[in-house]
Amino acid sequence: MNENIIQLLYLISAGLFIFGLKGLTKVKTARRGNAISALGMLIAIVATVLDLGLVDFRWIIGGLIVGSLIGAYAAIRVQMTQMPEMVAIFNGFGGVASALVAISTTYLLMVEAGETRAMATVLGGSSAVNVALSILIGGVTFSGSVIAYLKLAGTVVKGEPVLLPGRHAINAVLFISALALGIWAALVPTDPAQVIVVCWIVLGVSLLLGIMLVIPIGGADMPVVISLLNSYSGLAAAAAGFVINNAMLIVAGSLVGASGIILTKIMCVAMNRSLANVVFGGFGALDQSSVAKSSEYGPVRSGGGEEAAMLLDAADRIMVVPGYGLAVAQAQHLVREMADMLEKQGKRVEFAIHPVAGRMPGHMNVLLAEADVPYDRLLDLEQSNSEFKNIDVALIVGANDVVNPIAEQDPASPIAGMPILQAYNARSVIIIKRSLAAGFANIKNPLFESPHTMMVFMDAKKALQEIVAELKVTQAA
What we know:
The chain is an alpha/beta fold. It has two domains: 78-281, no CATH class; 294-476, TPP-binding domain (Rossmann fold, 3-Layer(aba) Sandwich), CATH 3.40.50. It has helices at residues 3-23, 30-52, 57-77, 83-113, 119-123, 125-153, 167-187, 192-214, 222-244, 247-270, 275-281, 305-314, 324-329, 332-344, 363-370, 381-387, 406-409, 460-476; strands at 317-322, 348-352, 378-379, 393-397, 428-433, 453-457. Helix content is 61%, strand content 6%. The protein is elongated.
């Protein structure tokens, strides 16, 4: 097909990616942005197939159908609590796909050359470098994402950091080994079979490096890790784009890489952490002296759904603080129903969203959007903190570390300096939580024993069901 038409299709795809990414920056336009990006990807795939020319379209169409069906099934069936795991594993698939593209392209070009020559001579110096980078970054992204997935699932691999002795030295050896093998493959003349063997070895080393980099990271840092791995997948794709000389892959990979690293920076700021501290610090390691146990708390005021409903009924302004417990209980629709009932009584109900609440960036936004909570009710960290002093009741549903005042009170705390939602400034605080167990940071939360706090020790769904039932009785009366 005419090269100008191909490039025009690539340009349209790039434009759609940019507009789609822009739409994803706001909850109100996120769905439209996602649809625009999906359309851009479809056009990019069609343009690439046409650009390749001599391909078996049966395999291409078959791949599109199978991949689309798997993606649609996964998107429909996944629970909101499993969304972080899904994002993590998708990052990994993107990374390993880029690595496999680089390896297969290298093999085809080396075979086509027909003689023993160095990869840099056949592909060009920059392409040889990008082959090594795509394999290295893609391998790290895949295995790191698998570990992140398993940590989030909490079944095979627990969320706590696994701090192996000498891990930094091991990581340095693995990284240097991958680079050395890549340089050897690029500069030493050899036959295609040997080059591919070296490429596979580099991929294997990279996979091991990805495991070693992510396994020491605790569950509290998973939002940052997911963002970082997302950036890695984009960088791997951009490098693969240079290898196959595909402008669209370069643009798309650069967009993903840049947006991922920006989001990572935002997450680090939200947790008052440096990226190096997240990657190398082993944050979240269990320190038994700081683990919050029930026996460490003083007198705690507790109540049930009836008492919580009475406080809400007497309030004029209510701030709901959603956390991972809300997602686990799948209680987002109930919290929306409760908010609607309270607003019909003339009360003002808003939602305070912490950037790292849940297990991935934007987790609470997605959760509440599923329940059709109006976008204008969602307040970010700064907006929420400026309003808490005017709030009659702060209703915390399944959140812990993001409302823990110890972040502001104890400089030695693992979360010291992390910006929190200052729910303690509300006149009354209701915390729905199954127990006094610690959050991801494994530290005590003094808000639980505050005199103006009432603990409701229930599953979020059951507690909200009781609250809604009591509010209905009150309204009927």
